[in-house]
Design a protein that fits this description.
12 helices; alpha/beta; 6-stranded mixed sheet
Length: about 375
């Protein structure tokens, strides 16, 4: 019986190995490029439509990178460029501000929304002139086009600057999660790619990577005119900490590449900022359960006065439509983008002067109430 059992086990091992190889190949889809700076040169990693991983060392950075979504759609090119942290406050109110949040790896939803509202043209180029696009965090996780969306906004930011406009990127909670190695909400393809490369996925966005450096330049809090933008919210705890926005933005970026335990151990300030009641996790502006520590109306008024704004505009918490709280002083723009796109519901906020509109994928404006 021993030879038979040995043969049976061998067949199982061969079958399992073949299955694993097939699953690995089938699970990978078009991905990248990932650009990392090494002592040997510029490392560029891509995955093609067949699931083949290309890992190349170049003597210098490529002039342009070609990008498509995971199915080979929405092709565009992007050029590497210098970048810097944007000023966190802009007193000047542009004619239009387009606000969206939580794209979560779904490039088709991003393109549909921005095309439908003439923020970009049919060729995926900036067409919003001197106006501003604000993206309130959470590019990572849930979808198949995480890297492609990063490159898309990276490209649009450069094009907007040339046109006199602006693309503002703010940190969500999923950026620090992924950079700390938390893969709970990532599609399997990203973990598979990391294993194929013999590294952690977070290392593809580390301080020696182009996208990692860019993400580290994003602010957590931004103000444009009389509107404050932050991913999750600011509550009573934030008010009592009395932290200047410059401090919040700098400290969040300084710790972006650390693991969660390292952030907490480094300082009480970081433990708060990255914690449940900090600006990238707090839900007490839009939920009233006691465990959320909802902010009292008078404290919200004090927060608005401290920053000299009329509205707090957030993402993070999903609602069926763009929603308001505290008599319109708080606006949540986060929705289920796939569902709302399909059902023709609101997906973003358009600010024109002192008027606020809910918009979907077809440019139809509905005044916010």
């Amino acid at each position: 019986m021993k030879p038979i059992r040995f043969f049976f086990v061998s067949v199982l091992v061969l079958f399992a190995a073949g299955t694993q190889a097939r699953e690995t190949r089938d699970s990978l889809s078009v991905d990248g490029p990932y650009v990392l700076y090494t002592e040997s040169g510029v490392r560029v990693i891509t995955v093609d439509a067949a699931g083949t991983v290309f890992d190349t060392i170049l003597p210098e950075a490529p002039r342009t990178l070609k990008v498509t979504d995971h199915r080979g759609r929405y092709p565009f090119e992007v050029s590497l460029r210098p970048f810097r942290r944007q000023p966190w406050r802009s007193g000047e109110q542009p004619d239009r501000i387009f606000v969206m949040s939580d794209p979560h790896g779904r490039l088709d939803c991003v393109v549909s929304l921005l095309r439908g509202n003439n923020v970009i043209d049919r060729d995926l180029n900036w067409s919003f002139g001197r106006s501003r696009l604000v993206v309130i965090g959470d590019i990572f996780d849930r979808g198949e086009d995480v890297v492609q969306i990063f490159w898309f906004f990276y490209k649009l930011q450069q094009e907007a600057e040339r046109a006199g406009g602006c693309v503002t990127m703010l940190l969500g909670n999923h950026e620090p999660m992924q950079l700390a190695g938390d893969m709970r909400y990532a599609k399997p393809k990203y973990g598979i790619l990391a294993r194929e490369l013999g590294m952690e996925y977070r290392d593809l966005f580390g301080p020696s990577s182009e996208l990692g450096r860019w993400i580290a330049s994003w602010n957590t809090i931004g103000i444009v005119g009389r509107d404050l933008f932050v991913h999750a919210g600011l509550g009573g705890d934030f008010y009592r900490w009395n932290l200047p926005a410059e401090t919040v933005n700098r400290r969040m970026s300084d710790a972006i590449f650390l693991r969660n335990k390292e952030r907490k151990a480094l300082s009480d300030t970081l433990a708060f900022l990255y914690g449940s009641f900090g600006p990238i996790w707090y839900r007490g502006l839009v939920h009233q359960e006691e465990k959320r520590r909802p902010v009292p109306a008078d404290t919200l008024g004090l927060l608005l006065d401290r920053f000299g704004v009329d509205h707090l505009i957030v993402g993070h918490t999903i609602f069926k439509d763009v929603s308001t709280f505290y008599d319109g002083k708080v606006i949540d723009v986060n929705v289920d983008n796939r569902v709302n796109r399909r059902k023709h519901r609101g997906r973003a906020l358009l600010i024109e002067g002192d008027r606020y509109f809910v918009v979907g994928d077809h440019g139809i404006k509905r005044e916010l109430k």
